[in-house]
Specification:
CATH topology: Beta-galactosidase, Chain A, domain 5
Shape: globular
Distance between the termini: 48 Å
Bound molecules: 6-O-phosphono-beta-D-tagatofuranose
Strand order of the largest sheet: 6-7-8-9-22-18-17-12-15
Largest sheet: 9 strands, antiparallel
Number of helices: 3
């Protein structure tokens, strides 16, 4: 089915719902929803949430203005889904790595550039819209295990996401994954991240050494850390936008904090040289020793809840 036919079919199914529109961005299809509390846009490719905005607030998420919107190219920004491995496969546990026979594989797994199916859009009430997407993963040279992935996004007074993995095959498999959220901030130099004090982290920029700090995190150079086994709310305090972003997760014990800063920003695709001032990634995940293994018919889910509060 070509792009126009897909859009027509989606309109036939969901176009009558209040506040729901089906949109085309160059080669990609997106579903936008708007209700009394918030609005959001999610792309079928990668089930990638590109924007969430509470009514009367600035966008919660950062999205590059250099996105290509091309088939097979994940958007830079929003909330990409990283599965069945996070980051560089070579840095993943052997139990994950040894399942893949190919030498060259994409970073952050294989579902960011796949077109997911829009399984449902429901108006729960005047302030809450539920969007469901699914991906039926077929065995391939890249990943030999069948699986069904489900993403549920609740757009309301806060943003909730639940990512589920179901082993639909007859063999067990292991994976790591993350919801790779890019948050929209006024200026990285003035931002503080609260809630990580005293939490051990792996510093991937310092030979993956374990470290810990009792101070709120302030960013003044490239940061790429994996905070381990944390619980509770993490806050981005953003005085420039006079707001805080609250991020909580469920069943995702790890949190990656990433900003490329100036040098790495120049090497990133679809990323303006100075854009590092305007974004900060907090990525709810389960990585390394928190990898997951699913037997046939077993399922696993993790998720996040984010909201903006005015300071
Ligand atoms: O989340 C941290 C990270 O692994 C960084 O090291 C950087 O590579 C970032 O993800 C973005 O990865 P991408 O493949 O989307 O360019």
């Amino acid at each position: 089915m070509n792009l126009a036919d897909k859009v027509q079919a989606l309109y036939a199914e969901y176009g009558a719902l209040k506040g729901v529109t089906i949109e085309i961005y160059k080669q990609l299809i997106a579903v936008s929803v708007k209700n009394k509390a918030a609005s959001a846009t999610i792309f079928l490719q990668g089930a990638q949430l590109a924007e969430y905005k509470q009514a009367g607030e600035r966008p919660l998420l950062w999205l590059s203005d250099q996105c290509d919107y091309q088939v097979g190219k994940p958007l830079r920004g929003g909330i990409p889904i990283c599965w069945p491995w996070f980051g560089d496969l070579a840095k993943n546990p052997d139990q994950v790595k040894d399942q893949i026979s190919l030498d060259v594989v994409p970073a952050h797994g294989l579902v960011r550039d796949q077109e997911w199916c829009l399984a449902d859009v429901k108006l729960i009430d005047s302030e809450t819209t539920l969007i469901k997407l699914e991906l039926d993963v077929q065995p391939s040279d890249l990943w030999p295990f069948p699986a069904l992935l489900k993403l549920e996004v609740t757009v309301g007074r806060s943003l909730s996401m639940n990512f589920e993995v179901i082993n639909t095959g007859d063999k067990a498999f292991s994976f790591t994954s993350a919801l790779h959220s890019y948050f929209n901030i006024a200026g990285i130099e003035r931002v503080e991240v609260l809630g990580l004090e005293g939490v051990e982290y792996i510093d991937t920029l310092k030979d993956w050494r374990l470290s810990c700090s009792n101070n709120p995190l302030r960013v003044s150079s490239e940061v790429d850390r994996i905070y381990k086994n944390l619980s509770g709310v993490v806050l981005i305090n953003d005085p420039g936008f006079v707001r805080q972003i609250e991020v909580t997760s469920h069943n995702a014990p790890d949190l990656v904090v990433w900003n490329p800063w100036a040098e790495k920003a120049k090497r990133l695709s679809n990323f303006a040289d100075q854009a590092f001032h305007k974004m900060l990634c907090l990525e709810n995940a389960h990585l390394l020793d928190n990898l997951q293994t699913l037997a046939p018919d077993q399922s696993f889910s993790m998720g996040l809840n984010c909201r903006v509060s005015i300071t």
